[in-house]
Amino acid sequence: MGMETIRINPDIDFIEFLKKDSGSDLSICMQCGSCTAVCDLSPDENPFPRKEMIWAGWGLKDRLMADEDIWLCHQCGDCSATCPRDVRPADVMASARNYAYQHFARPRFLGRWLQSPKYLPLLIMIPALIIAGIIALAGTLKIPEGPVDYSHFFPHEWLNGSFSVLVLILVILMVGSVKKFYSGLRVAGSPDKSGSLLRSDALRVEKRSTLKRMWEIFIQKDFRSCTTNRFRYIGHYMVFGGFMMLLVVTLFAILATIFFEYPMPFFHPVKIAGNLAGVSLAIGIVFLAINRFKNPSGSKAGQYTDWFFLINLFLLAISGGIVELARFMDWSPWAYYLYFVHLVLVWLVVLYLPYTKFAHVIFRTIAMLK
Fold first, then answer.
1. What's the predicted TM-score (pTM) here?
2. Which residue, 68, 70, 73, is CA-closest to 41?
């Protein structure tokens, strides 16, 4: 019986990205398996992250990009806390996800820009110029006189229309990314008879019902399985819940400009829900930031893309509250400058969603339901 030959084509650039982004020296990993042994989320049938550490060290980009387990990892840090070589597998898995954002998203150059701080001014300038251009086309690029009324600065029909177009473009881009991602998972999940350590079998012997699994994703159940960062799920739940509630409130606000009274009074139930969502979002981000700097697992305080998204969300929540207060307190003309900054922050979040950590909500959900 002849011996099967396995061809390995390492991607050196990919290795260098993982090293730089994670701060881990992949070459000193001795494959002891401690990371897999301590991970409560790692399934018996196809455990991680030991195999992912092999693929990362060998530069097997295609294997990792088609591996659902990098998304099943919740970066709780149990593996990093017990690693005898301080390679920090949790950070390596997070860096693989960061690479996936630019690998699957289109246009890809935006994904690359989101990975580097030097492009931050350009990333901010893009939505700022677009918004200023739309307001100029509406003929209202000036500070209105009289009591603060944001619709006199950015008319509702222009605001809602441009935002709807933005969301539509985002959905189209995300559908393309998701299709590419899912097709890669299906290929990776096909039976592999080689018996090799390079095998990426994404099949699961037991699968819980889809509805039950979706509920567990919603309540952040798997975060509670972590030991080192046991209470991190609180911050994640507050951020996730606050963000989703803000999306619902935004949708209602768009409809209200057409069918109901707008702007809504301060004690309107939807207004109250929006304010509570903003508070939840801000407090959740502070909770996550404190947890990162306390660093119980010895991991990095977070990659640049993580902080880009978290800080942007935090500023979005805070600016939303300030803009609302500026309207009620009639802080003209500063209210309009603050409103413009808030709009830029909104577009920063929405426009770059496919390339930031929010994308992992979609990819992780697909991987967990697969």
1. 0.81
2. 73
